[in-house]
Amino acid sequence: MGWFVVLLYLIHSLLLFHFPSYTFSLCNPHDLSALLLFNNSFTVNNTIVDHYHPWYYHCPTNVSSKIVSWNKNTDCCKWDGVTCDTMSGHVIGLDLSCSMLQGQFHPNITLFHLTHLQQLNLTLNFFYGDIPSSISHLSKLISLDLSFNYGGIDPYSDELGMAMRLDPSTWKKLIFNASDIREIFLGGINMSSINESSLSLLLNLSSSLVSLSLPGTGLQGNLPSRILYLPNLQQLTLSGNVNLRGQLPKSNCSSKVFGSL
Ligand SMILES: *[C@@H]1O[C@H](CO)[C@@H](O)[C@H](O)[C@H]1NC(C)=O
Ligand SMILES: *[C@@H]1O[C@H](CO)[C@@H](O)[C@H](O)[C@H]1NC(C)=O
Ligand SMILES: *[C@@H]1O[C@H](CO)[C@@H](O)[C@H](O)[C@H]1NC(C)=O
Ligand SMILES: *[C@@H]1O[C@H](CO)[C@@H](O)[C@H](O)[C@H]1NC(C)=O
Ligand SMILES: *[C@@H]1O[C@H](CO)[C@@H](O)[C@H](O)[C@H]1NC(C)=O
Ligand SMILES: *[C@@H]1O[C@H](CO)[C@@H](O)[C@H](O)[C@H]1NC(C)=O
Ligand SMILES: *[C@@H]1O[C@H](CO)[C@@H](O)[C@H](O)[C@H]1NC(C)=O
Ligand SMILES: *[C@@H]1O[C@H](CO)[C@@H](O)[C@H](O)[C@H]1NC(C)=O
Ligand SMILES: *[C@@H]1O[C@H](CO)[C@@H](O)[C@H](O)[C@H]1NC(C)=O
Ligand SMILES: *[C@@H]1O[C@H](CO)[C@@H](O)[C@H](O)[C@H]1NC(C)=O
């Protein structure tokens, strides 16, 4: 009987004190302020969608900016595009793909204060500028997609230099810190200063890397062929890099790597 009472008490206290923390996932205050400052650092530009890049077919046809649903007075974990850890309330996923966001990535960008992020997708917006080295603070990243941001300039026009840019030291820090990353999508980002030895750093990700997509990045020189043999690599896209040279493995169609080279 005594045990029964103890059991009842335990169940009672579990329901009272523990259950609520599972049902509420309130946004972590630090992450909330980083999101708000990030939101204030760019604008929504819906005047240029129609002139946009062919890759836009990846976006829904009724494209609209997810941030219009962002409201200071609601839990940020419920904002469109935001995913939180249900226990800690830390933001672990941010998908603002196809959201018509325009602005420069400043060195002080608060986006990279979200150090619990595992998934970040900003593809097909109109961001521009150098990718700040603080992106390497995102040490828990599993999936990164920054592809096809040209600031709103037609990428086929003569006005060059608006694409986002990634320099070798930022690349190195990112690979060093985000060592569990599985998906890297950086199509259209200016990576022309990343040389063969910088690309070889990808070999450090041999146990994690599954997808690598770097089309139209201005890569030049030789592709380190050992990248093609990374044990978990399943998707590799390197199209549109006219100055990149490399030797495909003497494949007999049993290669597990698919993609366009
Ligand atoms: C990013 O979002 C786009 C559009 O929703 C989607 O096509 C793409 O697969 C996403 N990238 C990753 C790495 O999941
Ligand atoms: C876009 O269309 C899809 C499917 O019809 C719908 O689920 C989604 O809510 C729509 N999004 C917006 C922003 O209207
Ligand atoms: C986020 O930015 C948009 C566009 O600039 C603005 O309309 C909205 O009020 C902002 N939301 C918050 C919560 O600051
Ligand atoms: C970041 O720096 C830019 C220019 O240096 C400035 O305009 C902006 O207000 C700063 N943003 C924050 C969040 O400090
Ligand atoms: C690596 O990530 C940790 C945790 O976010 C951070 O404290 C550290 O500064 C990062 N290192 C580099 C080189 O960015
Ligand atoms: C939208 O982007 C285009 C191209 O960068 C620019 O010319 C235009 O002024 C922007 N419009 C708004 C409302 O910011
Ligand atoms: C890419 O960046 C380099 C500097 O790193 C610059 O010289 C070049 O013009 C840029 N290319 C494009 C297409 O913007
Ligand atoms: C790559 O791996 C080597 C050997 O384990 C290590 O010394 C180096 O710091 C790593 N570099 C990066 C960028 O992760
Ligand atoms: C490749 O780039 C790295 C980093 O910028 C630099 O240290 C190295 O000297 C370059 N190697 C060659 C062969 O240009
Ligand atoms: C095809 O490639 C696999 C693995 O690379 C190898 O084991 C096999 O012997 C090859 N077959 C032929 C016919 O070359």
From TrEMBL:
Keywords: Glycoprotein, Leucine-rich repeat, Membrane, Receptor, Repeat, Signal, Transmembrane, Transmembrane helix. SUPFAM superfamilies: L domain-like. The keyword Repeat applies. One of its GO terms (cellular component) is membrane. This is Leucine-rich repeat-containing N-terminal plant-type domain-containing protein. It is found in: Membrane. Residues 1-25 form the signal peptide. It is a single-pass type I membrane protein. It comes from Crotalaria pallida. Residues 29-43, 66-85 form the Leucine-rich repeat-containing N-terminal plant-type domain.
